[in-house]
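Lecture notes, unit on binding sites. The following record was shown on slide 14. It pairs a sequence with pyridoxal-5'-phosphate.
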Amino acid sequence: MHDDSTPEAAWGLETLAIRAGHHRTGEQEHSEPIFPTSSFVYGSAAEAARKFGGDEPGNVYSRFTNPTVHTFERRLAAMEGGERCVATSSGMSAILATVLALLQAGDEIVASRSLFGSTVSLFDKYFGKLGITTRYVELSDLAAWEAAVTPNTRLLFAETPSNPLSEVVDIAALADIAHRHDALLAIDNCFLTPALQRPLALGADLVIHSATKYLDGQGRAVGGAVVGRNRELEEIFGVVRTCGPCLSPFNAWIFTKGLETLSLRMRAHCENAQALAEWLDRHPAVTRVYYSGLAHHPRHALAARQQKGFGAVLGFEVKGGREAAWSVIDATRLLSITGNLGDVKTTITHPATTTHGRLSADQKAAAGITEALIRVAVGLESLEDIRDDLARGLDALA
Ligand SMILES: *Cc1c(COP(=O)(O)O)cnc(C)c1O
């Protein structure tokens, strides 16, 4: 008799991505099923009482648990090397649930300056209102992190590599700072995914995902997840269960399908990005390329040590200012002009007037967001076509 109970602990990442967390129903289906149901029924009043009371494990209501969502959670937990994963309706609600679960009024967060825009709004506007304050520091400056920690600090929060300048922080060193001060370290792992970086293995306590990005990878669904230890995840689960930012079964099914090809896609994203970065680096109209896969990037050595790849988001500056940058963007015919990333379709954006447009001139200068900067999230189209699309505008500037 075929035994499919192979211990997941021994599996490689690609195997986990394809097989972890899959339990077949009695139908013997080969692929993961989808359970689009809001609630579940029982064979007796006594069984209902046990399941509602938590005395017996089992599904009650899809705001609490759902088998399709559970498959995605088990698979992502296995890939990140965490004890447990809780899936959420978006990346933002993953961060919201984490902070609501683990912090309270009077607690403080120390975060890197270069964060996703909505994360900054969430921290400043909404957590600020709850009496949770956030201090921002330079991502790669470990002394600044250490100096910003106070006895009230409960959470250190970073995105690495950063968007769009590909700055990197030493996760193990940051975890050490957090733990010496009895705080937790959360890493937003959107840009690399477990295919290229596993923050928990480096000492982080929590990994945050916007599954909307590379986990799906094809721009079809919005969702998120938190991965970590049972202790913290049980609290985070409580928030999701009670407050309701749960993931829909349909989106969970899409993300589970996305995970199956994650490693392959990330490898191809990285290959395209590396080749494009090297080509841009040689182009006469380009004054600077920000991509940690280039040997001249200030964090190249750290990125090479900490990551299995350099990701696919890169920035570059062109000769001239905003007008020149906009002309390169407007000359494209293939690339999508949008702020999104983590998609098979390559996207191009002008950070200073879009994703980072809310920053003051001083904040932009501190974050290195110049008017000449363009960000490309490199997709999976033919490299020649991506290059030709950028060459049209760049050649006109040279
Ligand atoms: C997109 C994104 C988020 C937010 O995720 P949503 O799914 O859009 O809510 C958080 N962090 C990073 C780094 C992101 O790119």
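Take-home: The pocket of pyridoxal-5'-phosphate is lined by residues 90-92, 116, 118-119, 159, 188, 190, 210, 212-213, 222, 224 (CB under 6 Å).
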